Amino acid sequence: MQAITERLQPIRHAIGTRTLVMGVLNTTPDSFYDGGRYAAFERALARAEQMLAEGADILDIGGESTRPGAEPVPEDEELRRTIPVIEAIATRYPQATISIDTTKSRVAELALHAGACIVNDISGMTFDPRMAEVAAQAGALVVLMHIKGTPRTMQQNPHYTDVVAEVRDTLRAHAQRAEQAGIPRENIWLDPGIGFGKTVEHNLQLLRHLPTLKSLGYPILIGTSRKSFIGHLLGGLPPEERLEGTLATLALAVAWGADIVRVHDVQAAVRTVRIADALVRHSPNSGNSFPLNRDSTPSDCDSSPMNRDSTPMDRK
Ligand code: HH2
User: Which region among 14-23, 153-162, 204-213 has the lowest average model confidence (pLDDT)?
Assistant: First the structure.
């Protein structure tokens, strides 16, 4: 197996040139959308193969649900759910970029050994004090997410004075701690944690103000896929009926600066972000980085290509 640094090269080079798609693969019995579907080893592998064929850049393997109210899973059980699947995917698909979705340093350590090269930690490496050291020593890339509280308690009346400023400051602090622990800047991605200790309005504010988070200078990952705020905005639709709402958030997240999207529906997401990329990254009038490097609110977007009238040709 190649060293982690070499395996990360294609992913790191792609950042900024197009939106990367991270496919979710939960080997749990109880995840809010795919729980129980891929808990069996062969089904997990088949799903991995399908997501790769559909164009996933990264596979994010998780063995612990972090849905609101979820109880922690014992380490042994999380290892049992994730490590054999990661080993098998890494062996069968050596080009696949594998991420481990965990807050436990031991799970991350064994996953990195088994073939993962990204640690996706919803706690921003705050739940387990050894996590930063493990990631730094392995040369892993880390996704540092914002959460208020823990999955068990986070949706009990979350409150912020200024949600965007608070999330930005916390993410900045997470990144600084990671760098102090020896994780190089280019191996750090940040994530506002949609749905993690946030009301519907908090989630909308964070998405609208992605340019403010982007101004921290790190790639931004967004995870809106089939989450409850989408169901809420559509009159109470269940997770199975939240695909179109998810795709709407992806297109706008790309326009507002997202670099990576974490999704359950890889094919639909790839098609959506390709079009969004064509519009916002390659427009002859916007340059490659127009919407990507700004620290502005959507109301500043009046002159952006998104808000201009289309020409008759465009209306075909
Ligand atoms: N969301 C979930 C899990 N991990 N990681 C990041 N970085 N960002 C996210 O938004 C995010 C995440 C929740 O989704 P899912 O894995 O489908 O559900 P569950 O936690 O129930 O397994």
Answer: 153-162
Cα 167 from chain centroid?
15
Write down the pLDDT at residue 42: 95
20-35: string of b/e by CB count within 10 Å (b at 16+)?
Answer: bbbbbbbbbeebbbbb
Q: Tell me, what amino acid is at 3? A: A
The H-or-E segment that residue 65 falls in is none
- Main-chain phi, psi angles of 66, to 5 degrees: -115, 25
Pocket test for ligand 1, best of 24, 81, 141, 154 (most atoms within 8 A of CB): 24
Q: Is the pLDDT of residue 199 over 90?
A: yes
Ligand 1 contact via 262 beta carbon (within 6 Å): yes
Is residue 287 scored above 70 in pLDDT? no
Task: Tell me the pLDDT tens digit for each residue of 239-276.
Answer: 999 999 999 999 999 999 999 999 999 999 999 999 99
End-to-end CA distance of the chain: 49
User: What predicted TM-score, i.e. pTM, was given to this entire model?
Assistant: 0.90
Pocket of ligand 1 contains residue 66 by CB under 6 Å: yes
Residue positions annotated with a catalytic role: 227, 262
Say yes or no: CB of residue 24 within 6 Å of ligand 1: yes
User: Which residue has tokens 């164009």?
Assistant: 55
